[in-house]
Structures are given as structure tokens and as C-alpha cells.
Amino acid sequence: MLIPKKVKHRKCHKARGRGKTHLATSLVNLDFGDYGIKAMSGGWVSSRQLEAARRAMVRYIKRGGKIWVRIFPNRPVTSKGTHFTMGSGKGSPEYYVAVVHPGMVLFEMSGVTKELANEALRRASHKLPLKTKMISQEE
């Protein structure tokens, strides 16, 4: 699983403001590979979901091509147990998420045929909690 080696602040504020509807301004083009997955909706992708999607792609292409993961889970999500009463501060960090805006490229792939890449990316998109679409350099 992907987690940051070192963080400046252990906990982070609640997400307020931009929301899930604003379009991405970075990570919007294929920079490394020939095929990729682009997010059509916004949300959080946990490190477990990223790893599951990456494994689905790697296993399907049988380590034939090269895969780039373009996002990194660097935002801590905290939670408290159910046996705590109100108050007593914020919970401890449980897992890390990557904040995804619509239009971001999540994964890229090269070194495989178009049919193989489409199927691998389709399998990976089933592991993600977002609406996605496959893109290629030709488009």
C-alpha cells in the first residue's frame, strides 16, 4: 500500500470548499504511456483501492508492459472508535486517500496492444469508486 514516508502534520482538516465538481487543472494529459484511465467524477481513492487496481492491471498484462500510477494518497483520514463519547478530541489517522478531481489521469500504460490495455484498464476501473473512462494517445 502507498503511504507517505513523512508528513508535516499528522492529521488534516475536514474537506470543505471546492467539492467534487471542479475540474482538475493538473494531471489532465497522458505524459508517459499510450493508454490511461481518466476520472469522470471526483472523490477520494484510498491506498487500498489504488493497490487493488494496480494489481488487477499487472496481473492481466502478465507484467508485459509498463504502468504508471499518477496519483498518490497523501491525505490522512482519521476516525474514532464507536465506544468513545462526544468530545475527547480527534481520532487517530486510520488510512490515506488521494483526492481526485474530474479530468485527472489516474493510471497510464504502455508496451501492450490496445485490446490488452483496454481490458486491463477496464478491470482496474472496477476497483475504483469513481466513474472513469479509457483514453489513448491517438485521441
From TrEMBL:
One of its GO terms (molecular function) is structural constituent of ribosome. It comes from Candidatus Falkowbacteria bacterium RIFOXYC2_FULL_36_12. Keywords: Ribonucleoprotein, Ribosomal protein, RNA-binding, rRNA-binding, tRNA-binding. PANTHER family: 50S/60S RIBOSOMAL PROTEIN L16, LARGE RIBOSOMAL SUBUNIT PROTEIN UL16M. NCBIfam families: rplP_bact. This is Large ribosomal subunit protein uL16. The gene is rplP. Binds 23S rRNA and is also seen to make contacts with the A and possibly P site tRNAs. Part of the 50S ribosomal subunit. SUPFAM superfamilies: Ribosomal protein L16p/L10e.
